[in-house]
């Protein structure tokens, strides 16, 4: 059979496939006519075998290139991304996240780096005001002095510059972005996450130490106590997820480095999800409880309660069992 | 893979293409999306994102009647859009954000299968390092240049790549309406057993000959025309260009 005859014979089905691919890619697969989808599969297999036999058919190069493009588009129209299974997210958050975190040395390392840098800086800053001036600078100290110079409840009563919803939104946007960046930087062999953990620990520790000995200490603690447990844990967990990803580049376990990176990055995702949830919870507490006129014991019990929740989540989460064998 | 026709599988050409095998065991090629096309798509997405953020802020402020509490949802929307826009679009629209769609790009996983939701999230989260903020795209760009499939760091972490979906016009066979070609075609045998190499050479030549001047055509066609003249008993004086066109007609069109 001559090429021209073969082309005219096949051309109609290629054109039909092209039309179907356009049609099917434009809408969700469930909204397509079943007959169209079946026909698409049939035509796709046809064009696949045309491509396979292109060389023995002596098809011209342009036609082969055209067939490559057509097969590619039809392949992507047939095999599609599965989207997000929101039902699985609960399982990931409450099942795999605590399990991976519990067994992960990265979490211990991240916690150690953060807590140690925090404590050292807090102690030094409390003992020597000069230290905090050098670490965070005069401007920050002045603004933080100014911020906490009046009691929190007087601020919220005046209601001039501050709105609870707006602040909660701001904390969600600002703090969670910090956490996500802390994770993303982990791709530089984990050094980025370590750096973020250290710098956060140093700055926060210095501010804590500085404020603890300042005359406005009571105002400061009235504000920060309630959301501390959620927020600091969230930073540590995000850093741990980043470290986990970076560690994949270092300890390849016999895989190639990109493959190992992929493996650990996927493993780190549940922890990162948990961290985002913690950040959002912290932001709501920070916006609506920390800034409120509630008495100090109420805020302290919120902090203790949330700390207990985190401990319960980390120690008990994901122990529920054998519902899905092989999931771990 | 056992077929000799895909011999190139073991030694891929030095080219920005990637070979994939479909579940039907068919090997086909995609061109990879390079930095410039992807940057343009990114800019389109960025403009769209800015519009969406402004729109969300406007709606939020309108609903709260301009009160300060409207800033909260606006900031949450900004957070969700800035971190989730790419992941959402790629996860739901089969690997394409609107910008990628406009430029014919698509994210697929390294094996050519569609990306999962986790991959979409991962490549966009790690993308925070690739972007403008730390080193003016330098990390993403150097990762693209160093990796085999133009992968930025987010792609490496998620195991994805960006391909170009081609929509080529189908160039069929050419007919050369020259009387001298027709005259030679009639003197050729009805069936010519051209091997695949000869067929490919003929079609490549005929496709491109209109770009060359007469002298260059003769020079290019002569080495192939000489054995063909001998094989079909044509006069050595026949121009090489005309001979190739005539054989092409016979082999491909049969008329």
Q: Which helices and strands occur, and which strands form pairs?
A:
The complex is a heterodimer of chains A (328) and B (255).
Chain A: H1 3-26, H2 34-52, H3 61-78, H4 86-102, H5 105-127, H6 129-136, H7 138-147, H8 152-158, H9 164-184, H10 191-212, H11 217-250, H12 257-290, H13 296-316
Chain B: E1 17-21, E2 27-31, H1 35-63, H2 71-92, H3 98-102, E3 105-109, H4 117-130, H5 138-146, H6 153-158, E4 160-164, H7 179-185, H8 196-208, H9 214-232, H10 240-253
Antiparallel strand pairs in B: 1-2, 3-4
Descriptive overview:
The complex is a heterodimer of chains A (328) and B (255). Chain A is mainly alpha-helical and 328 residues long. Chain A has 2 domains: 3-78, no CATH class; 86-316, no CATH class. Chain A has helices at 3-26, 34-52, 61-78, 86-102, 105-127, 129-136, 138-147, 152-158, 164-184, 191-212, 217-250, 257-290, 296-316. The longest helix of chain A is centred in the last third of the chain and has 34 residues, at 217-250. Chain B is mainly alpha-helical and 255 residues long. Chain B folds into 2 domains: 31-164, no CATH class; 179-253, no CATH class. Chain B has 10 helices and 4 strands; from the N terminus they run ββαααβαααβαααα. Chain B has a two-stranded antiparallel sheet. Chain B has a two-stranded antiparallel ribbon with strand order 3-4. At the A-B interface, α1, α2, α3, α9 and α12 of A face β2, α2, α4, α6 and α8 of B.
Question: What are the salient characteristics of this protein?
Answer:
heterodimer, A: 328 residues, mainly alpha, 2 domains, B: 255 residues, two-stranded antiparallel ribbon, 4 strands, elongated
Short note summarizing the structure:
The complex is a heterodimer of chains A (328) and B (255). With 328 residues, chain A is mainly alpha-helical.
Residues in helix, % of chain B:
40-55%
Number of helices of chain A: 13
- Summing up helix and strand content along with how strands pair, one would put the structural category of chain A as mainly alpha
Instruction: Please give the radius of gyration of chain A in angstroms.
Output: 29 Å
Distance between the termini of chain A: 58 Å
Mean pLDDT of chain A: 84
User: What's the Cα radius of gyration of chain B?
Assistant: 27 Å
Enumerate the strands of the largest sheet of chain B in spatial order, edge to edge or round the barrel. Answer: 1-2
β-strand number of chain A: 0
């Amino acid at each position: 059979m001559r090429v021209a005859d073969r082309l005219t014979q096949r051309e109609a089905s290629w054109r039909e496939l092209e039309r179907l691919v356009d049609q099917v890619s434009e809408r969700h697969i469930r909204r397509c006519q079943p007959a169209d989808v079946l026909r698409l599969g049939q035509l796709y297999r046809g064009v696949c075998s045309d491509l396979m036999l292109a060389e023995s058919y002596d098809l011209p190069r342009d036609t082969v290139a055209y067939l490559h493009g057509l097969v590619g588009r039809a392949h992507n129209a047939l095999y599609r991304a599965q989207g997000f299974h929101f039902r699985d997210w609960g399982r990931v958050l409450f099942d795999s996240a605590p399990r991976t975190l519990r067994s992960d040395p990265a979490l211990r390392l991240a916690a150690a780096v953060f807590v140690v840098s925090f404590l050292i800086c807090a102690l030094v800053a409390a003992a020597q005001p000069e230290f905090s001036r050098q670490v965070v600078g005069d401007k920050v100290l002045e603004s933080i002095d100014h911020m906490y110079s009046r009691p929190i409840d007087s601020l919220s009563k005046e209601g001039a510059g501050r709105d609870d919803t707006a602040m909660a939104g701001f904390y969600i946007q600002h703090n969670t972005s910090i956490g996500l960046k802390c994770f993303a930087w982990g791709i530089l062999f984990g050094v980025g996450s370590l750096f973020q953990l250290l710098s956060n620990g140093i700055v926060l520790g210095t501010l804590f130490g500085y404020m603890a000995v300042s005359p406005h200490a009571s105002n400061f603690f009235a504000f920060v106590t309630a959301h501390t447990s959620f927020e600091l844990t969230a930073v540590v967990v995000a850093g741990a997820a980043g470290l986990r990803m970076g560690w994949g580049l270092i300890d390849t376990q016999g895989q190639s480095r990109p493959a190992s990176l992929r493996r650990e990055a996927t493993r780190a995702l549940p922890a990162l999800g948990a961290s985002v949830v913690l950040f959002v919870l912290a932001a709501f507490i920070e916006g609506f409880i920390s800034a409120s006129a509630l008495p100090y014991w109420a805020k302290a019990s919120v902090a203790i309660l949330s700390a207990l929740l985190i401990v319960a989540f980390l120690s008990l989460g994901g122990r529920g069992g054998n519902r899905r064998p092989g999931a771990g | 893979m056992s077929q000799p026709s895909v011999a190139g599988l073991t030694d891929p050409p030095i080219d920005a293409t990637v070979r994939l095998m479909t579940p039907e065991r068919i090997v086909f090629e995609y061109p990879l999306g390079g930095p410039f096309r992807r940057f343009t798509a990114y800019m389109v997405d960025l403009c769209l994102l800015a519009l969406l953020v402004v729109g969300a802020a406007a709606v939020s402020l309108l609903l709260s009647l301009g009160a300060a509490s409207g800033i909260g949802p606006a900031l949450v929307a900004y957070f969700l859009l800035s971190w989730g826009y790419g992941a959402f679009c790629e996860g739901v629209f089969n690997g394409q954000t609107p910008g990628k769609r406009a430029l014919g790009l698509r994210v697929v996983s390294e094996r050519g299968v569609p990306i999962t939701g986790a991959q979409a999230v991962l490549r966009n989260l790690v993308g925070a390092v690739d972007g403008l903020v730390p080193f003016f795209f330098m990390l993403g760009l150097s990762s693209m240049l160093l990796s085999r499939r133009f992968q930025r760091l987010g792609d490496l972490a998620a195991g994805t790549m960006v391909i170009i979906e081609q929509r080529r016009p189908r160039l069929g066979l050419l007919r050369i309406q020259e009387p001298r070609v027709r005259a030679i075609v009639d003197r050729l045998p009805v069936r010519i057993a051209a091997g695949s190499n000869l067929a490919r050479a003929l079609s490549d030549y005929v496709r491109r000959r209109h770009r060359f001047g007469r002298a260059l055509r003769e020079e290019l066609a002569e080495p192939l025309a000489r054995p063909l003249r001998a094989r079909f008993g044509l006069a050595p004086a026949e121009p090489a260009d005309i001979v190739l066109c005539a054989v092409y007609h016979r082999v491909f069109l049969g008329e």
